[in-house]
Amino acid sequence: MDTETVETLCRIDAAFYRAQSESFSQTRKAPWPGWVRCLETIAAAYPDDSRTISLFDLACGNLRFESFLEEALPDISFSLYAIDQCDELVSSARGQAGIVPFDADDDTVERMRSEQGMAPVRYRHLDIMEALRSPSGLASHLAAPSCDVCVAFGFMHHVPTAAYREQVVSSLIAQTRPGGYIIVSFWMFLNDPGMAARARSIHEQALGELGLPPLDDGDYLLGWKGLPGQYRYCHSFSEAEIDCLSAAVSDRAREISRFSSDGRTGDLNFYLVFKVL
Fold first, then answer.
1. Could you give all domains of the chain from N- to C-terminal order, each with its CATH number?
2. pTM, two decimal places
């Protein structure tokens, strides 16, 4: 895929989430079943519930994983860091009362935790795709302390090309303390025959409408609620692609678990869990 097409796809996704943040957030309220297995990793890795576990969420969306985490593990204290480029999605979840800047001091965070009954999220706006394409790369823009656990859910399918996807995982490795854990999900929407048929139909229409060349294997432009002109770029992963990605970072992070979950077919998301070396 050439640079111009990559930039166009990034603009399409950014415009989609600006325009449809409210309606998209309304469809993303319930936790994914796969997150239960993710919690098993976290709980097993940090059995001492007297300590605070630091978690970094790349492309956090409407913060539903953070809400799920606190409800599912109420006896564990979390220090939460989150990054996204769509502020509307973030504020729709908790409002500004539940969000503080990255540099908020611990006393402020603890006071808010006590008043609100939940940990505030240290949040920072970042155009992740622009940072990926910058000369210094994504890792140099994250600006959070090294964390015990780093996650990226529902994001990798918006990242064009294998090289940028590897950079995302490499950046998460750099953001995780040695011995910490990374959990990443990969959407496999072509596993659902109905979704696959709709994707292929809408994709061809969108390519013509937007004047784009054919995209790489697995790349699609998907519609949204039948609305005209509302498209988002998404990649449906194959397990072979995920194998290659895992192998590419194996000198820095060891894969310790992989599993499929979610969706009507129970296999629309594929999860990788790494332990950082």
1. 3-276 (3.40.50.150)
2. 0.94
Which are the contacts of 256, defined by CB distance < 8 A and separation ≥ 6?
41, 273, 274, 275
3-state secondary structure of 42: helix
Render pLDDT for 184-232 as a digit per residue (tens, 0 to 9).
999 999 999 999 999 999 999 999 999 999 999 999 999 999 999 999 9
Could you tell me the two tokens for 108? 């402020």
Q: Which residue has the higher pLDDT, 120 or 171?
A: 171
Sign of CA dihedral 264, 274, 47, 178: negative
Question: In 188-245, at which residue ranges do the beta strands (DSSP E only) sit?
Answer: 219-222, 232-235
Long-range contacts of 142-145, Cβ-Cβ distance < 8 Å, separation of 24 or more:
142/56, 142/58, 142/83, 142/171, 142/174, 142/175, 143/102, 144/56, 144/81, 144/83, 144/102, 144/175, 145/54, 145/81
Q: What angle do CA 253, 246, 126 make, to 5 degrees?
A: 75
Q: Which residue has the tokens 């994504």?
A: 138
